[in-house]
From TrEMBL:
<feature type="transmembrane region" description="Helical">
    <location>
        <begin position="90"/>
        <end position="116"/>
    </location>
</feature>
<feature type="transmembrane region" description="Helical">
    <location>
        <begin position="282"/>
        <end position="303"/>
    </location>
</feature>
<comment type="function">
    <text>Multidrug efflux pump.</text>
</comment>
<dbReference type="InterPro" id="IPR048279">
    <property type="entry name" value="MdtK-like"/>
</dbReference>
<dbReference type="InterPro" id="IPR050222">
    <property type="entry name" value="MATE_MdtK"/>
</dbReference>
<feature type="transmembrane region" description="Helical">
    <location>
        <begin position="136"/>
        <end position="160"/>
    </location>
</feature>
<feature type="transmembrane region" description="Helical">
    <location>
        <begin position="250"/>
        <end position="276"/>
    </location>
</feature>
<keyword id="KW-0050">Antiport</keyword>
<feature type="transmembrane region" description="Helical">
    <location>
        <begin position="357"/>
        <end position="378"/>
    </location>
</feature>
<keyword id="KW-0813">Transport</keyword>
<keyword id="KW-0472">Membrane</keyword>
<dbReference type="Pfam" id="PF01554">
    <property type="entry name" value="MatE"/>
</dbReference>
<feature type="transmembrane region" description="Helical">
    <location>
        <begin position="194"/>
        <end position="214"/>
    </location>
</feature>
<protein>
    <recommendedName>
        <fullName>Probable multidrug resistance protein NorM</fullName>
    </recommendedName>
</protein>
<feature type="transmembrane region" description="Helical">
    <location>
        <begin position="315"/>
        <end position="337"/>
    </location>
</feature>
<keyword id="KW-0812">Transmembrane</keyword>
<feature type="transmembrane region" description="Helical">
    <location>
        <begin position="59"/>
        <end position="78"/>
    </location>
</feature>
Length: 453
C-alpha cells in the first residue's frame, strides 16, 4: 500500500522541509487559536479578564500538552510500522489508540471540571481574575472529548507521513474560534466565558468536519470499526512510548505554571504581562516545535526501515535550518518585544512587562534550535525515557529554582525571571549531546536500529 509520504528513500533535506512546513503552519494556526482568546479579551475586556484567560488557558494548555505527548506514542508506533511496511499492524495500532484516548477523554472531563477552582487557587490567580479563571477552565474542560480527538487525529496522520490533514483540522478550528470570539466577546460582551465557549465550539466543529473529510480519503492501511478496541499489547506499546513524553511535557509545563504562579504573586500587571508574553512565546517557538514533531516522524520511519544514518543526517539538517530562522526571531523578540506585546494588550504597563520577559526568551530562540531537534530525534528513536529525564532535570533542577531565586530579589524584572528558561535549555542541550555521543561510543557495530549516533 502507498503511504502519504515515505522518508526512507531519496533525498533527506527537501522531504523533511516539505513535511515540516505544514506542521509549522498547523502550529501557527494552533497558536493563533490560543492567542485569539487573549487578543479579543484584551481589546474588549479588562486586565482582570486578560489575567483570567492567561491563567486559565495555561492550565488548559498543560492538559493539551499531556494529550499531545501521550499521542506521540501513536505517531512513533505507526511511523515505525509504516517503515517496516507492516501496514495492517499500523491500522490496529490506530484503533487501539482511539479506544485508549476515548477513555482518557472521559476521565479528564470529570477531573478537570471538579478541580477547576482548586487549580485557580494553586495558580495564585489574582483575586480580580479568580472567578473568570474557574469559569474558563470549567467550560473548556466540558469539551475535553474534542481536545483529545483534535490531537489524536493529528498524531495519526503525522505517523503515516501526512502533515497536511492536521493542518486542515487546525485551520478549521482557528477560523471558527476567531469568529466565535468576535461574536461572543466583541458583540455579546460575554468576556472570559465567551472566549471559552468559542474555544470548545471551534474544536467540536473542527473534529466533526475533519471526520467527514477523512471518510472520503483513501488511507494507506486497512482500517475498520473492529480495529477500535482495547488491545492490551498495542495500548501497552503506545503508553510505553508516549507516557514518558507526556510526563516530561506535563512536568515541564508545570514548571512554567509554577513560574506563572510566582509572577502572579507580584501583582496584576506582572500577571497580565507574563500572560501576554507566553502567548507570544507560542509563536516564537513555532519553528523548533515544528522540527521536533517532524523529526520524530521522519526518524521513526527510518528506524523502522533500519536506516539510522538517514535519521542522523536529518538531525543535522534540522538543527542548521532551524538555527538560521532562530537568529531572525531572536533579533525581533529582543529588540522589538514592545511592538509584539502591543498586539495583545493596550495597557502600557502590561506591554512593558511582557516585552521585558520576551528579551529572555529571545536567547532561548537560539538554544531551542538544538534542543528541540535533539528531542524529536530521540523520540523518533523510541528513546522517550531519556527525553523525559532531561526535561525533568531542566525544569526542576534549573528553571524553577532560578525563577524562584530571582523572584526573591527586591524590584526584580521579568527579564531576570525569564532567564531561567535559557539557563535550563543550556543544561538540557548538554545532556542531549552527552547522550548522543555516549550512544556512539556504546555502539558495537554501525547500522543498528538502536539509534546510536
Amino acid at each position: 500500500m502507498p503511504v502519504s509520504q515515505t522518508f526512507t528513500q531519496g533525498k533527506i533535506f527537501s522531504p523533511l522541509i516539505r513535511f515540516a512546513l505544514p506542521v509549522l503552519l498547523a502550529l501557527f494556526l494552533q497558536a493563533m487559536y490560543g492567542a485569539v482568546d487573549l487578543l479579543v479579551v484584551g481589546q474588549f475586556g479588562t486586565a482582570a479578564g486578560v489575567s483570567a484567560v492567561s491563567t486559565g488557558s495555561q492550565i488548559m494548555q498543560t492538559l493539551t500538552i499531556v494529550i499531545v505527548g501521550l499521542s506521540m506514542g501513536i505517531t512513533i508506533l505507526v511511523g515505525q510500522r509504516i517503515g517496516e511496511k507492516r501496514f495492517r499492524d499500523a491500522g490496529r495500532a490506530i484503533g487501539s489508540g482511539i479506544a485508549l484516548f476515548a477513555a482518557v477523554a472521559a476521565g479528564l472531563t470529570v477531573v478537570m471540571i471538579l478541580a477547576a477552582e482548586s487549580l485557580a487557587v494553586l495558580m495564585h490567580a489574582p483575586p480580580e481574575a479568580a472567578r473568570g479563571t474557574v469559569s474558563y477552565v470549567q467550560i473548556c474542560s466540558a469539551g475535553s472529548i474534542f481536545i483529545v480527538a483534535f490531537n489524536v487525529i493529528g498524531s495519526v496522520f503525522r505517523g503515516i507521513g501526512d502533515s497536511k490533514m492536521p493542518l486542515i483540522t487546525v485551520a478549521i478550528a482557528c477560523t471558527v474560534n476567531i469568529g466565535g470570539d468576535l461574536l461572543l466577546v466583541g458583540v455579546f460582551r460575554m468576556d472570559v466565558a465567551g472566549a471559552a465557549v468559542a474555544t470548545v465550539a471551534a474544536q467540536a466543529v473542527s473534529v466533526l468536519l475533519s471526520l467527514l473529510i477523512i471518510r472520503k480519503r483513501a488511507l494507506p492501511f486497512s482500517f475498520s470499526k473492529k480495529d477500535i478496541r482495547f488491545d492490551r499489547r498495542l495500548i501497552g506499546k503506545i503508553v510505553k512510548l508516549g507516557s514518558p513524553i507526556a510526563l516530561q511535557d506535563l512536568l515541564v509545563s508545570i514548571s512554567f505554571l509554577v513560574i506563572l504562579a510566582i509572577v502572579n504573586a507580584l501583582g496584576l500587571t506582572a500577571s497580565a504581562g507574563i500572560g501576554v508574553a507566553e502567548k507570544l512565546c507560542a509563536f516564537i517557538m513555532l519553528v523548533p516545535s515544528a522540527y521536533m514533531q517532524s523529526m520524530a516522524a521522519f526518524v521513526a520511519q527510518n528506524i523502522g526501515a533500519n536506516k539510522p544514518d538517514r535519521a542522523k543526517k536529518a538531525l543535522l539538517y534540522g538543527i542548521l535550518s532551524s538555527l538560521a530562522v532562530g537568529v531572525l526571531i531572536a533579533y525581533v523578540s529582543f529588540f522589538h518585544g514592545s511592538a509584539l506585546a502591543s498586539v495583545f494588550a493596550r495597557d502600557a504597563a502590561v506591554v512593558s512587562a511582557a516585552a521585558d520577559y520576551l528579551r529572555a526568551y529571545a536567547i532561548d530562540c537560539l538554544l531551542t534550535s538544538f534542543l528541540f531537534c535533539f528531542m524529536g530525534y530521540f523520540n523518533g528513536c523510541g528513546k522517550t525515557l531519556f527525553v523525559m529525564a532531561q526535561g525533568i532535570v531542566g525544569a526542576f533542577a534549573v528553571r524553577i529554582p532560578i525563577s524562584y531565586f530571582m523572584s526573591r530579589i527586591p524590584g526584580v524584572s521579568l527579564f531576570m525571571i525569564g532567564l531561567a528558561t535559557p539557563a535550563s535549555s543550556v543544561v538540557q542541550i548538554g545532556l542531549c549531546a552527552a547522550y548522543f555521543f555516549w550512544l556512539a561510543k556504546k555502539a558495537k557495530r554501525p547500522g543498528t536500529v538502536r539509534c546510536e549516533a
